[in-house]
Amino acid sequence: MLNPTTITLLFLLFAIVMFVLEKIPLALTATIVAIGLNLTGVLDASGTFAGYINSNVILCVGMFVVGQALFETGMANKIGGIVTKFAKSERILIIAIMVIVGVMSGFLSNTGTAAVLIPVVCGIADESGYSRGKLLMPLVFAAALGGNLSIIGAPGNLMGVDAMENLGMKTGFFEYLPVGGPMLLIGILYFAVIGYKFLPDTKGEGTADTGRDYSQVPQWKQITSLVVLIVVILAMIFEEQIGIALQVSACVGAIVLVLTGVISEKAALQSIDLKVVLLFGGSLALAKALETTGAGTLIADTIVGALGANPNPIVLLLVIFIVGCVLTNFMSNTATTALMVPIAVSLAQSLGADPRSMIIATVISCSCAYATPIGMPANTMVVGLGGYKFNDYMKSGLPLIAVSFVICMVLLPILYPFFP
Fold this sequence. Notes:
About 70% of the residues lie in helices and about 0% in strands. By secondary structure, the protein is an all-alpha fold.
């Protein structure tokens, strides 16, 4: 009879293999793992399903609706059109695109932001004669970089926050900003000065889907969608002062948008990505099993043992970042984060170190999907439109990963000491 630790490790191995191969949907893999852990007696029913009603899952659901209203009304498209005013040169345009996309991605869906602005940028390139190849890759990379500005920038961010909260740590809306902000700024600087030279000078193929015509959308709906988003974000930032939880603020915003008719009930429900919810919930069940059975500690002890007696926490931080970066370029960012966060916590605890820097390093490394066209959905969206080859992602993405790595390795030990 297999013991709970072995069973958990087998389910972890199954999850890793299936997340990489994607022979079945990611959400289904996570659900199989959660139910399997229950059927084998590793978790009881409450432990199995607690992740699906986790407060951060509710936050994610609320923000899906609030963000979708901005896309549904065309307001996101209008904001993106601002870049046309900066189209005086390709380099200036790259900076403008990355600033707007980066900031929007900090508060909206990364993939949604990219999807809305790709047609806008393609139109600018075609009308001005600029190279699509020089503009589209910075756009999708900025979407990933911007996701590290706040805890709602990407689903994986909330997994990191959840892990910290379970350890009794206090978290804030801009938990990742001290590292994510410099990464975005230096990423923009990198493309403006050096990275620009690595981008292919291609026109690309095909026509970007211009999507809906928003001319018939009443202006009050566009303005309301933006106002609600801003108010919700402000409420989240000042959560302690106003005494309203982040999750509640997101839900109130979603309710207001549906009640006022800015977004229909049908559109609101369709905006909720159940794949993310199921992946999140199932992954939290696996994380719970790794913790309660000691499987996470066993993995951590094995890694620590391989690094010799009393390894330097900086070395562990380096290992976490490299492993996260490698995995995330070939599998879902969210899935990679789900697998790596519990292991990062166990690694920190095995040294008696504050796990905050390890968790943040994990979340950020799992967003560095710049080196392949399959690293994140937005990368794939622009392959044909930008006329990109696999090597183009390697040439532009690997230096950006290196820049992100240096920033993390320098800032994290300073901002979040291992032994405060």
